[in-house]
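CO-FOLDING WORKSHEET

Operator: S.A.
Ligand of interest: pyridoxal-5'-phosphate
Run index: 357
Mode: holo prediction, single chain
Checklist:
[x] sequence pasted
[x] SMILES validated
[ ] output reviewed
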Amino acid sequence: MIHNFNAGPSILPKEVFEQAAAAILNFNDTGLSILEFGHRTPEFTAVMEEARSLVRELMQLDENREVLFLHGGASTQFMQVPMNLLDSKESAAYTDTDIWGQKAITEAKLFGKVDVVCSSKDKNYNYIPKDFAVPNDSKYLHITTNNTIYGTQWQTIPKTSNSLVADMSSDIFSRVLDFNAFDLIYAGAQKNMGPAGVNLVVVNKNILGKVKRVIPTIMDYRNHIKEGSMLNTPPVFAVYVCLLTLRWLKANGGVAAMEKKNIEKADLLYNEIDNNELFIGNVAREDRSKMNACFVMKDPSLEKEFLQYAKSLGIVGIAGHRTTGGFRASIYNAMPISSVQVLVETMQSFGQLKMKN
Ligand SMILES: *Cc1c(COP(=O)(O)O)cnc(C)c1O
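OUTPUT RECEIVED:
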């Protein structure tokens, strides 16, 4: 048995893989593969509509929010968001809480002015900044709700009178939030929702159409809204797999049930990190991510050996990001608690092994 702790692309429910595999051979009993199926057909239009309406239901969105499935990764949204929302003479507030936030900042600067209102770079991004002010005239405040690489997460969403924009790529559908408090939410699918190649965008339609620049057709959210997220050929298969995950989410109790399970998993793992002599959690406790747990070994010379040992027991994907080293265990919605238990037992048995030697 393999326990997949990859950060992204990452684990999805087994039944989603099975249903996706079946649809590659025979989609909806049509005798055709989903890969050779027209996107304008009633069958695929139904897929898109069900996926959009499940997002609406699971996030309890109000009637101002529009749900889109767009091509590209979250990195495309780093550019598309300011292109649609920020005029060249206006400024937007950005929070610098990891490499992804930094990349969002770099792209926003191409379109307008950027105020970096806080940063945790001074401590290698191991905490979430608490005290910062957002200028009143900022067009929006951008946050990365979960910092996939450094393992921090905004446990409370900052209260602001500004428009809120969030990159939720790595914690979408993992916890209950007031999603209507955000004017724009985006998430690359491949962490908690589906395969790479599609973005979920939830946007308050009332904030669109305010910038003066000419926006290329495919980049303008309004065109996608008008066409029901079918402006051009959507990433058909990726959207279909997202639909399967969304159905699974609903059948398993929705976002609140996921949150409960995610808290149990995170508690189990962090408890071991804190109590095992060999390991140290390297993120401020109150800001610890419930999706990506980062930790190191007190004796770094043992890290390679632990990785090998874990791998021999079926544990994959726990090496830290290339910029941080150490370990990162990603425990997304689809990760069963039994796999976290195996990781915890492996950390314990590695300790016993070391004591013997
Ligand atoms: C993975 C990730 C991204 C980048 O996504 P791409 O699909 O590779 O563009 C951006 N933001 C966050 C928070 C991520 O976890």
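REVIEW:
Residues 8, 73-75, 100, 144, 148, 167, 169-170, 188, 191 surround pyridoxal-5'-phosphate (CB under 6 Å).
The chain has two domains: 14-251, 254-356.
[x] output reviewed
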